[in-house]
């Protein structure tokens, strides 16, 4: 995406997004409700068009480019399937669109998830709709899989099976996978790279490992913690009785002396995300 | 619910359910995808009818009973709203159905969630649909609130706001609330009572506190753990290197001597749920 913006009327949904997806990598696309995640994925899949800027797939513009689009599959939250067809028929239709289709994988996964393919899509629960859409996505030959909330409405067992299926596919096919999700803790280990968007802007774009190496929680008595972290990029504060914790993002200053009363702990992606996108102070107040 | 069963054709969705909801209590309704949670809630709200058995609200049959039904509000996963109306109009329609409606609360919550009520329901994302449906539910005067996946598609901030809104309403109005969800960890503290259904059967019906008092993890070397737990109700097993953990459900035997190598730990509702409903061995294999 090169300087991509998207407006609806006067409303700016995405503002000048600039980033690149590397081949064969799993991306986590994180953002709050309304941040612009689904709009971003719909742009990548050419279902909507940018107001300005350019979207290239392997150096080719995606707009009106069947070859480029054949490389991309978007599993979206919207349910676009015709109501009258069985799941089996829908899979055959997907094959027509993409040329190839891994029916064996689709049947195997349907078995694992206990999904009968003779049913109609419109009769499925939210959870089973997610399962079917994921199966269709994984069985296409697309080199870029865009998965918008792949675990929507799924129980913990099924969410685990979904993460396993994505990982198995990744190890076998080395595709580029973009996963948009609100269950950050659960996919933290799956993502190699993190993209965080907040109110239409890309506010973080980095390798998961590097990001976590820069995220810390400094814990101790309020006064000592405040003194030690002065000048650091403090993104959040929490208190538990007389103990205070400051979340900081950025490199630590090795020259500073850490008081005995203060300790530095790792923090996780979910906490980091919450504080980086906490526009209202909704959590941890 | 008295001996309620529900079939679709030859398929038994619910099998002889027998339970009672107490006034002024928060219930967690837990079950895997396809277990029958939504069917159960739709029966309670009289949107569908039981194949056999009886459903009473304050001792009155719900079928064709407007007074009894006015006491119940179901926030369902299905989106039943007419596409052409604004959210504001939909709220006015809800008032017509229920007589009273707390518009002040609805406006306050819409402000907290940053939801403009001038929009059309069909234009909302999955997350904002959940938010709107929850607002409509909390603003009705219904004494029984049935919430089917109230946090579907919501980010962590918004999920937290939802739990807070449910708790605030509960403290003020003392209604009976039934929450069906797959995010068990997050609502564990909110639920006073747990109902678990598995493949159409009610397999657990108890106070959260009592249930947790009976759920244990026994950890130690495999041989010692197996010996100590022999005869107990073992619902799951995990291993980490040479250390083994058995999940057991039921009272402990105080006569048994606990070896020094073995320790007994608390377990949480999510783990208990996973093992009680693990028909396929999908997790923790």
UniProtKB/TrEMBL annotation, chains A, B:
This is ABC transporter, ATP-binding protein. PROSITE patterns: ABC_TRANSPORTER_2. Keywords: ATP-binding, Nucleotide-binding. The keyword ATP-binding applies. Pfam families: ABC_tran. InterPro entries: AAA+_ATPase, ABC_transporter-like_ATP-bd, P-loop_NTPase. The keyword Cytoplasm does not apply.
């Amino acid at each position: 995406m090169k300087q991509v913006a998207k407006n609806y009327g006067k409303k700016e949904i995405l503002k000048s997004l600039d980033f690149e997806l590397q081949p064969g990598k799993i991306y986590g696309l994180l953002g709050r409700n309304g941040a612009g995640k689904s709009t971003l994925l719909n742009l990548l899949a050419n279902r909507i068009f940018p107001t300005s800027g350019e979207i290239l797939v392997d150096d080719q513009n995606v707009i009106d480019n069947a070859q480029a689009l054949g490389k991309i599959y978007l599993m979206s939250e919207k349910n676009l399937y015709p109501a009258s067809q069985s799941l089996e028929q829908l899979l055959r239709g997907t094959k027509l669109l993409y040329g190839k289709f891994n029916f064996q994988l689709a049947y195997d996964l349907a078995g694992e998830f206990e999904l009968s393919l003779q049913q109609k899509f419109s009769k499925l629960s939210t959870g089973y709709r997610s399962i079917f859409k994921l199966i269709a996505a994984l069985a296409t030959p697309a080199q870029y899989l865009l998965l918008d909330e792949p675990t929507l409405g799924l129980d913990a067992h099924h969410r685990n099976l979904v993460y396993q299926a994505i990982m198995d596919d990744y190890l076998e096919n080395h595709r580029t996978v973009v996963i948009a999700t609100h269950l950050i803790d659960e996919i933290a280990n799956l993502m190699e790279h993190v993209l965080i968007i907040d109110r239409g802007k890309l506010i973080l774009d980095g390798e998961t490992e590097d990001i976590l190496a820069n995220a810390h929680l400094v814990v101790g008595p309020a006064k000592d913690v405040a003194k030690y972290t002065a000048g650091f990029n403090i993104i959040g504060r929490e208190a538990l009785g007389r103990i205070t914790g400051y979340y900081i993002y950025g490199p630590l200053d090795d020259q500073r002396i850490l008081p005995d009363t203060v300790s530095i702990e790792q923090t996780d992606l979910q906490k980091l995300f919450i504080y980086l996108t906490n526009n209202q102070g909704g959590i941890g107040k």
